[in-house]
Design goal:
This protein is α/β, with parallel strands linked by helices. The chain contains 21 helices and 19 strands. The chain has helices spanning 10-14, 33-42, 58-61, 65-76, 90-98, 128-137, 179-196, 205-212, 292-296, 305-319, 337-348, 367-374, 390-395, 402-414, 433-457, 489-501, 515-525, 532-540, 554-563, 569-572, 592-603, and strands spanning 48-54, 80-86, 117-121, 153-157, 173-175, 218-219, 224-229, 233-238, 247-248, 276-279, 281-282, 301-302, 323-327, 354-356, 381-386, 419-426, 465-472, 508-512, 586-587. The chain has a six-stranded mixed beta sheet, covered by helices on one side. Strands 15-16-17-18 form a four-stranded parallel beta sheet. Helix 16 (489-501) links the parallel strand 17 (465-472) and strand 18 (508-512). The longest helix has 25 residues, at 433-457.
Amino acid sequence: MMNRPVPLTKADLMQVESPARYVGGEYNAIVKEDMLEELSRTGKTSYVRFAFCFPDIYEIGMSNLALQILYHVLNESPFVACERAFSPWLDMDKILREKNIPLYSLETKTPLCDFDILGFTLGYEMCYTNVLQMLDLGHIPFYAKDRGENDPIICCGGPVTYNIEPMADFFDIVMMGEGEEMILELSEKIREFKLSKDTDHPMTKEELLRNCDTIEGVYVPALYSFSYDKCTGAVITPVDDTVKKSITKRIISDLDHCSYPTTPVVSNLRVVHDRSYLEVFRGCIRGCRFCQAGFIYRPVREKSVEVLCEQGRLLEENTGYDEMGLLSLATSDYTKFPELAENLLSTFEGHHTSLSLPSLRLDSFSLDLMEKVQSTRKSGLTFAPEAGTQRLRDVINKNIREDDIFSALRLAFMGGWSTVKLYFMLGLPTETDEDVLGIADLAARIEKLYYDVGRETGQKMRRLEITVSTSLFIPKPFTPFQWEPQNSKEELIRKQRLLKDHIRSRNIRYAWHDFDSSVWEVVLARGDRRLAPVLLEGYQSGHFFDAWDDHFRYDDWVAILEKHGLSIEDFSREFSEEETLPWDHISVGVKKSFLLSERHKAHEETTTPSCREHCSGCGVACFGVGECFAKRNVNKEESSDAAK
């Protein structure tokens, strides 16, 4: 099809809050000129045209590492041209609708409906209606069943897809797991489909989807039927014997030799995380029972120090950023973290480039590492105790003791830190008021420790700033707590007020997460295909950008849900251990029986780590790693539920 750049004018751009979101032309952005020449000459191209879509605004999407990685991987292919598109903010959304201008890609300003495939990355359930916004503005039918042979193939990936059922009717293809290899295999199938149209026997869309079903990690929702019964649960069944019964996630076994973008696209405006990134490792050794990421990203795989340092050098050289973030679920669990930090700081010495560290594990913190990082730029410390009492930390398998917390913070205060953020959750399974008040007590004792350190050392102490932040527990698929109920909205509000009333120091600030959005997130996280018409009606009623608190309308969503014969309690209730869950046809490499055993241990308030010495009985799929991280002297005494 002839390339049709959209007719957006400078006058249109002058009417919006941030025109730079919509113009492209960034440093390191890729335009395949030979594809454009081919389109200009023949009106069509043999390239697979791939629009990588992020269902939120540009500043958030350009901070997403998955976008940068897959954009790079796709454009390395000699037969794929990947471009980017983002959700337009309300001002641009209005202009596009009023002028009937289709949503377009940044690189060539091509309407989304002219691409061969649209790929959405989904990191958060609350972005679902923004997917519908982008399809709508892209002039593409919502439901997969309504799209014809010449419409783009709509696919998605990301952590949310492990229960994609609320959105399954809108997608042709879902990618489970890590996408670097899978997305190229999928693009090859799309290429075969596209080239067949010029033959005597063009491939049908149904044939394409069945071909894609043969790719490991690919889920084709149309090839599965759905039924729901209050007794048996939500059942997903293959339509015939040729369709695989279970979809197993894909993983990349060797990160050192996996493609990584050392020439990422550099934004023309300040984005949310305005820095370059090094991905240190994937997976987690911890096994916290509430944490979905800790289970779905298994097994643990690390990059070598040599590869990371070379990638860091190239990123600094190719981007000009003066700050580099280290990304993983728990960066300080990297087995050679001191060596990595020392080598990176040595590489950046004299360049005014600093390291940005994410939330650190309290039980692997050291003064030595703090001093290395503060030598360039000093910032606040962020820790996540998660629960206010040791009993509840044992229930959730957090595996840190109060001694760990106070010894780590003592080192931090001796090192000169005076700003601390502490993250907790409210509404965890078995939580009591004593556990809630334990958060206030813990913060007060940390405050006392700070001034004790000042008296003991004779240091002149700056004003202490402690931020206590609470999110609300959300039972997520593929965790031992996936069967647990969520506290009612009223109970969550009561607990927030209880905690607030018991934090009295001016040095301690309390910040809490909105409960309305957390209640709705449970519906989306544990929902099934009955939610598709609910989401579509909500979008058509004007509800999108739900991830933004000032745009989310809880009462409206409850009313729409009830209109379709459903309720919040249908999804926030305790799920029976006997019923089929909406995601039971997906395999992340952790057996359901293991998750159940971990749930039972939590309710028994066990303090015994799940896998201290070996993994022979933990139920975690091996994936070729072949040894327990508890045997690798990685926090050996506290390593639990290690990924094999």
